[in-house]
Amino acid sequence: MIDGRTPLHYAADYGQNEVVRYLLEKGANANATDKHGITTLLAAIWEGHTNCVKLLLEKGAKPNGLTPDGISYLDAAEKDEIKQLLKVHQHKAK
Questions:
Q1: Residue 73 contacts by C-beta under 8 Å, 6 or more apart in sequence?
Q2: Which residue ranges contain the repeat ANK (predicted)?
Q3: What CATH number should be reported for the domain whose range is 7-91?
Q4: Is the pTM of this model over 0.85?
Q5: Which has fewest Cβ within 10 Å: 4, 11, 61, 94?
Q6: What is the pLDDT of residues 6-25, one digit of tens each?
Q7: How do the domains of the chain map onto residue ranges?
Q8: Which band of pLDDT confidence, cut at 50, 70 and 90, is reported for residue 5?
């Protein structure tokens, strides 16, 4: 681990869907946070990796998080597909 970043952070950051799936199946924490406050979900959101976002949300990543700057994940997302996934999972979380 470097700066608190887990292998799942790196897989999500680089859009490695199969690696994300494998790590989650092996028990990786979908809500892991690095020393900067960046979760695995936020890494995938920022990089626009829709499939990784979907996998993380399906495995329990919390959709209502904030970036280190205090911006909601929904506002931080640029892709409409990711915004929609976050909205659906935020609704389910209520």
A1: 41, 42, 45, 63, 64, 65, 66, 67, 86
A2: 3-35, 36-68
A3: 1.25.40.20
A4: yes
A5: 94
A6: 999 999 999 999 999 999 99
A7: 7-91
A8: confident
Alpha helices in 1-94 (DSSP H): 7-13, 17-25, 40-47, 50-58, 73-76, 80-93
Rounded CA Rg of the chain: 12
Measured between alpha carbons, how far apart are the two ends of the chain, in Å?
33
Question: Which residue do the tokens 């979907």 mark?
Answer: 54
Q: Which two tokens stand for residue 36?
A: 């900067």
3-state secondary structure of 68: coil
pLDDT at 84 over 90: yes
Q: Give the residue among 29, 27, 22, 26 at the shortest CA–CA distance from 9.
A: 29
- Are 36 and 68 a contacting pair, CB within 8 Å? yes
Q: Inter-axis angle of helices 80-93 and 50-58, to 10 degrees?
A: 10
